[in-house]
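sorry for the late reply, my laptop died twice this morning and i had to redo everyting from scratch. anyway the thing you sent over, i finally got around to it. pasting the sequence first so we're on the same page, its 216 residues, then the predicted structure underneath. double check i copied it right bc i was rushing
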Amino acid sequence: MPDAIYRPRRAELVAHLRATRGIRDERVLEAIGRVPRHRFVESSLAHRAYEDVALPIGAGQTISQPFTVAYMTQSLGLRRGDRVLEIGTGSGYQAAVLLDMGVRVFSVERVADLLNRTRALLDELGCELATRLGDGTVGWNEFAPYDGILVTAGAPKIPPALIKQLKLGARLVIPVGDDRQQDLHIVERTGDGETETTVIAGFRFVPLIGRDGWKV
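ok and here's the structure:
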C-alpha cells in the first residue's frame, strides 16, 4: 500500500501524542510523523501500525507503542549529532526515529534472525547506523562514551556497564522491574560513580536477557 495512504494516520498519531499523552518535544513528534511505522510491523498488522499500542514482530519480541518510543526518546534530551547506544534493535522503529532526528545510533540485538531481518529493512529505507549481535547488558564499549543510552527491554536491575559508558551529564533510559511490569528509570550520570534518577511507573517490556539482565 502506498505510503501516502498512511500519512493522515501518522498525523493523527502525532496529534494524539501531543494532545493526550503529553509529548512536548517537537523534534520527536516530527520524527514520528515522518517514519513509516507500517514498514516495521508484519504486513498483516499494517492496518494497526498507527494505533498507540505495542504489536508482535516475531521471535517473542514486540514493537513498542508509539507513546513509549516518544516518551523514552524525549527523556534522553538529545541534540542533532549526539551518539546514542540502543540496547535491543528489535523492529528497528526506535532506531529509525532517532536517526530521523539526526542522531548517530549504535544498536545491539541478541536475536540473530531478528537483527538480520531488521538490518535488511533499515538498509532498504536508507537508515545508516551501526549494529552488533551480542549481549546488550554489557553495552558496546568500543564507541563509548555516549550522549544517551536507551534500553528497549525490561531489566531486573540497571547494568553497571551502561552507566560507565555514559558521558557526564548524559542519560540512560531503562525499564526496571519484574517480568510483569517495570518502572522507567531515567538515570543521569552526574559524576564519577554518581547518578541522579527519576522513576516513572507503569511500563511493560519484553525481558532484557544477558549477563546483567534476566537469564535465558
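The chain has a mean pLDDT of 96.
thats about all i looked at so far, will dig more tmrw
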